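Case study.
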Amino acid sequence: SQQGEEDPQALSIQEGENATMNCSYKTSINNLQWYRQNSGRGLVHLILIRSNEREKHSGRLRVTLDTSKKSSSLLITASRAADTASYFCATDSNDYKLSFGAGTTVTVRA
Amino acid sequence: DTGVSQDPRHKITKRGQNVTFRCDPISEHNRLYWYRQTLGQGPEFLTYFQNEAQLEKSRLLSDRFSAERPKGSFSTLEIQRTEQGDSAMYLCASSPSGSFNEQFFGPGTRLTVL
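After joint prediction, the assembly is written out as follows.
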């Protein structure tokens, strides 16, 4: 079963705009990770935030985590056409297997 | 390229045939994972190896599925008597122990069962 749920399911934005997507999960976690997947390809790790962290930045990415609400958000600033992909949150509850949501499909229009 | 590799990238087979996939993890990673991903969904955990020991199998892994990691390096996933419902992308990932479980994924093997 999939623990995480991303929202929205799909997002279409203009190049240069910001993209925000959210993830909610059900059980307590050790950490939460975001991955990107280009169509038909493997997943690329973007960022990991530990359960005792509230915010983390990596380049144009900003991730927040609210463990009281069991939710996380991923913000991509100044989007580019190359950001077109599906984005998944993954929770780690037990130090090995990851539980993924169904993903948010982001389309960046030129 | 020292990332995770998977072979083959695509496999088309007829229902009832057996198929085997191979995964070569990043060389210093002792943890290896298999996931399955169907269209429009996120990956679902199948099984996990720490070195050569298979430590957990998901209930998704029926008796027709078997995975091995004989020398703690590469791994194989075999599906016997394939069914149309087995059609999916099979993803392999690896991670070093002692990390925060950041997993590095391979490109996947797309299986189509006709």
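Observations recorded in class. The mean pLDDT of chain B is 93. Residues 54 and 69 of chain B are 8 Å apart (CA to CA). We will return to this complex in the next lecture.
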